[in-house]
Write a structure and sequence with these properties.
The chain has about 230 residues and is mostly helical. The chain has two domains: about 45 residues, Arc Repressor Mutant, subunit A (Orthogonal Bundle); about 160 residues, no CATH class. The protein is built from eleven helices and two strands. The protein has a two-stranded antiparallel ribbon with strand order 1-2. A hairpin with a 4-residue loop joins β1 and β2. The longest helix has 18 residues. It binds a DNA duplex (21 and 21 nucleotides) through α3 and α6.
Length: about 230
DNA sequence: AAGATCAGCAACCGCAACCAG
DNA sequence: ACTGGTTGCGGTTGCTGATCT
C-alpha cells in the first residue's frame, strides 16, 4: 500500500517558517500554481504537496482578506450555510478574499455558538424549541443593512425576529421540514443567461460545484437570498 | 503569580472526485 | 469500463494566547 505523501520521511510538519513561505511564494511567482505533488521538490521544500497547496491557498496567495469578519459576511455565511450546508468551499467562494478554512473555523468558533445562543440549531437552522412555523416567509435574516449596529444589537434583532415567529431560520428550516423536500425545490440560482441549476438532493456528486460557483458569481449575494 | 480553562486558528488526515491512460 | 495518480474538500486535532479562578 502506497504511503500518503504526508507520511514520507524527510518532510516537515507543523507551522511554516518564513523561509518556507518565501520559497513557496517565489516558486509560485515563477511557475504558477499546480502540480502540487512535484512542487515541493522543485521548490526545495521539505513538505508534502498537500501541505504546500493548503499553505498557499489559505495564507500566501494574493488578495486574501485577513482579519475579522464583518456583520454582512457573517449574515451571508449563515444564509449560505442554511442553503448549502457544510460546503465551505462554495460558501467561501461567495466571500471575496476568504478561504474555506477561514469560513469553516469562523463558523465553528463563532457562528455556530451564536446560533445556539439564539436557540437555533446550527445544523439545520431551525429553532431548537418547537415554535409555530412562520406564516409568511421573508427573504433574509436581518437584511444587510445592519453593519452600523453593534453585535449585540444584531443579536437582539435576531432574537426579536425569533420571537416574532422567526425569520431567521426560514432558509434552513425547510431543510429538515418533513413536508419539505430538497429535491423538489428545484433551486434555480440562475438569474440570466445560462441553463438553470437545480440542487438535487444532498448527494454531493450531483452538484457540479464549479458550475454552481460560477453561477453564483453572477448573482449578487442579496439577490441570491431571494431564493431562500 | 501560577495553574486551569477556554477560544481561535493553523495545519493535518482521510476520503471522494476528477482525470488521463 | 477500469485503474492509478492527483487534487480538493471537510472533519478533526493540537498549539498558542487570552481569560478566569
Amino acid at each position: 500500500m502506497r504511503k500518503s505523501c504526508c507520511e514520507k520521511q524527510d518532510t516537515n510538519k507543523g507551522a511554516w517558517s518564513k523561509q518556507e513561505d518565501q520559497k513557496l511564494i517565489e516558486y509560485v511567482r515563477r511557475h504558477g500554481v499546480g502540480s502540487w505533488r512535484t512542487l515541493p521538490q522543485a521548490a526545495g521544500l521539505l513538505r508534502c504537496g498537500k501541505s504546500c497547496r493548503l499553505r498557499w491557498n489559505n495564507y500566501l496567495r494574493p488578495n486574501l482578506k485577513r482579519g475579522k469578519f464583518d456583520e454582512d459576511e457573517e449574515d451571508l455565511i449563515i444564509k449560505l450555510h442554511a442553503l448549502l450546508g457544510n460546503r465551505w468551499s462554495l460558501i467561501a467562494g461567495r466571500l471575496p478574499g476568504r478561504t474555506d478554512n477561514e469560513v469553516k473555523n469562523h463558523w465553528n468558533s463563532h457562528l455556530r455558538r451564536k446560533l445556539i445562543n439564539m436557540g437555533i440549531d446550527p445544523t439545520n437552522h431551525r429553532l431548537s424549541q418547537s415554535l409555530p412555523r412562520p406564516l409568511k416567509p421573508h427573504a433574509s435574516v436581518s437584511g444587510t443593512s445592519h453593519s452600523s449596529s453593534s453585535r449585540d444589537d444584531h443579536q437582539s434583532q435576531l432574537v426579536k425576529a425569533k420571537c416574532d415567529n422567526d425569520q431567521v431560520s426560514d432558509a434552513g428550516s425547510c431543510l429538515e421540514d418533513p413536508t419539505w423536500e430538497f429535491p423538489n425545490l428545484n433551486l434555480d440560482l440562475r438569474l440570466t443567461t445560462s441553463p438553470s441549476i437545480a440542487i438535487v438532493g444532498e448527494e454531493r456528486k450531483q452538484i457540479n460545484e464549479s458550475t454552481v460557483s460560477r453561477e453564483l458569481d453572477c448573482v449578487p449575494p442579496p439577490t441570491l437570498l431571494l431564493f431562500m
